[in-house]
Each structure stands twice: as structure tokens, then as C-alpha cells.
């Protein structure tokens, strides 16, 4: 018993030594760290705003490490990007842009990552608002490490690519020729989807409503349920799972398109 208490004390002490070391290193190397323990009442300011001419641009790339991204459809002819934070930060924390031939990239600042641990550290509110012209019909690629992707507008593009490590994907309407959605830990929810392609999740549910599938499509999830409402009932469903059940009212053997669903431990509801 005594030995167990001693071991627990050593582990507990080591844990706090590691935490305090991380805090000390963060304070030494990050001037923008401020302590706001148990205080979430902070002001939101517009830290940066910039507009971009999309003439000749065939692909728009958004790459962010730690930020929520909100997409808007605009009648304006230029792309507009706004970054909102909870405090004044130096320019190296704000987004940058680069242009290469027909590609425009909006990327994180050099020191965009933040430090937060159990309510202590830099409580970094970091939101990127992207206003995409309705006239833009090129490709759209979004890469996030940690952060949600949200939109209440109709987002149109040619090819839509999305990848995320940790964050939810929630769009009201997406119309594209082809898509690729990949997330490790996060849910995928689209209220209106038109297009075809692949979706992959490790841990997260997939919920697709009013899915107008234009060609063969696939969904692969390890731990998560799949719920799909198809507008085009003329399709075939191929389902395989290790420990999951399928409830489908759609299965036309002679259909032109096939929806392939693979799960490890997740149910699928197709209607």
C-alpha cells in the first residue's frame, strides 16, 4: 500500500513538473501568451482584412493550423479574407498569402499556433472568415489541423478538397463536380450536397441530407455512424462492416451509380 502511494506521488509530481516546464517555455518564447485562467469574457477584434483579385486563379487553397474557418458566398468580384482574434497580436501571427501561377494560397502566419491547457495559457480566439465570389468556379482546397469549418451559404466550386485532424465540418450547401473529405477526429455534416467523390473519417459521424450523387461515391469510417438522404434513388448501395448494421431503403441492382460504404464499428442508415 505504502509503495503504491509513493509511486502515485512520483507520477503526480512528474506530471506537474512537465506542465510547469511547458508553461515556462511557452512564456519565454511566446510574447503573446497571457494568462486568462477561468476567464472567457474577451473582446473580439478584426486583426486583419485583405482582398484578392481572382482573375486567372483556378485553385484557392486555405491552410491553417489552429483556426475556425467560416465560408461565405459574396456578390463581390474579389475574394476577401478577415481574421478575428481576441487581442492585438503581432503580424507574424496573422495570415499570409502567396500566388503561384493559377493558385492562390492563404496560409497561417509564422507563429500562428497557440498554447492552451485546461483553461490556462493563451486563450486564443482565432477565426478566419473567407468571402468567396459567387462567380468563382475554380477548385477549393482546405487543410486544417485543429478547427471547425462552417458555412450557412451555398458554396460552389469545381473540385472541393478538405482535410482535417481535429474539427467538425458543417456546411449548409455544397455543389461541386467532385469532392474529397478526410478527417481524423470530427463529424461531417452537409444539409445539401451535389457532386461525387470520397469521404473518410477515423472517429466521427457522417450526416448527408439531400445528397444528389452524380457518380460513384464512397464513404469509409472506422468509428462513426453514417446517415444519408439521397435525392437520386436510382443507385446501388454496397455496404460492409465489422460490427455495424445497415438500414437501407435504396438498392437498385441495375442502377448506374454505386455508393460504397465501409465501417469498422458504425451503423449506416440510407434512405
Q: Keyphrases for this structure?
A:
3 domains, 10% helix
Describe it for me?
- The longest helix has 28 residues, at 2-29.
- Strand 7 and strand 8 form a beta hairpin.
- Mean pLDDT is 85; it is low at 30-40 and 115-123.
- The chain is flat, with a radius of gyration of 22 Å.
- The N and C termini lie far apart (58 Å).
- 10% of the residues lie in helices and 54% in strands.
- It folds into three domains: 1-30; 34-155, no CATH class; 187-271, no CATH class.
- It has an eleven-stranded mixed beta sheet, with no helix packed on it. A ten-stranded mixed beta sheet has the order 5-6-2-10-12-14-16-18-22-20, with no helix packed on it.
- It contains one helix and 23 strands.
- The protein is mainly beta and 271 residues long.
Rg calc: 22 Å
Main sheet characteristics: 11 strands, mixed
Name the strands of the widest sheet in spatial order.
1-4-9-3-11-13-15-17-19-23-21
Uncertain residue ranges: 30-40, 115-123
Shape from CA axes? flat
- Topology, number of strands: 23
Helix- and strand-based class?
A: mainly beta
Which H/E pattern describes the elements? HEEEEEEEEEEEEEEEEEEEEEEE
Number of helices in the DSSP assignment = 1
Distance between the termini: 58 Å
Task: Provide the domain count.
Answer: 3
Give the mean pLDDT: 85
* Portion in helices: 10-25%
**Content of β-strand:** over 45%
Amino acid at each position: 500500500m505504502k509503495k503504491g502511494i509513493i509511486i502515485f506521488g512520483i507520477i503526480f509530481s512528474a506530471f506537474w513538473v512537465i506542465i510547469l516546464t511547458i508553461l515556462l517555455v511557452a512564456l519565454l518564447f511566446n510574447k503573446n501568451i497571457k494568462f486568462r485562467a477561468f476567464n472567457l469574457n474577451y473582446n473580439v477584434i478584426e486583426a486583419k482584412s485583405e482582398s484578392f483579385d481572382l482573375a486567372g486563379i483556378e485553385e484557392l487553397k486555405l491552410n491553417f493550423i489552429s483556426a475556425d474557418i467560416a465560408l461565405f458566398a459574396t456578390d463581390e468580384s474579389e475574394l476577401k479574407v478577415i481574421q478575428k482574434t481576441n487581442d492585438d497580436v503581432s503580424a507574424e501571427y496573422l495570415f499570409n498569402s502567396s500566388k503561384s501561377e493559377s493558385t492562390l494560397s492563404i496560409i497561417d502566419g509564422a507563429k500562428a499556433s497557440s498554447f492552451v491547457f485546461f483553461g490556462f495559457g493563451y486563450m486564443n480566439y482565432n477565426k478566419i472568415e473567407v468571402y468567396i465570389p459567387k462567380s468563382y468556379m475554380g477548385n477549393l482546397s482546405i487543410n486544417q489541423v485543429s478547427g471547425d469549418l462552417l458555412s450557412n451559404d451555398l458554396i460552389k466550386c469545381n473540385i472541393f478538397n478538405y482535410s482535417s485532424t481535429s474539427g467538425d465540418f458543417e456546411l449548409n450547401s455544397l455543389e461541386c463536380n467532385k469532392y474529397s473529405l478526410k478527417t481524423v477526429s470530427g463529424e461531417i455534416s452537409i444539409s445539401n450536397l451535389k457532386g461525387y467523390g470520397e469521404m473518410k473519417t477515423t472517429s466521427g459521424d457522417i450526416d448527408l441530407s439531400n445528397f444528389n450523387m452524380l457518380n460513384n461515391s464512397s464513404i469509409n469510417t472506422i468509428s462513426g455512424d453514417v446517415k444519408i438522404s439521397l435525392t437520386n434513388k436510382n443507385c446501388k448501395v454496397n455496404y460492409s462492416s465489422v460490427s455495424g448494421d445497415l438500414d437501407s431503403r435504396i438498392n437498385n441492382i441495375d442502377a448506374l451509380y454505386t455508393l460504397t460504404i465501409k465501417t469498422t464499428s458504425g451503423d449506416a442508415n440510407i434512405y
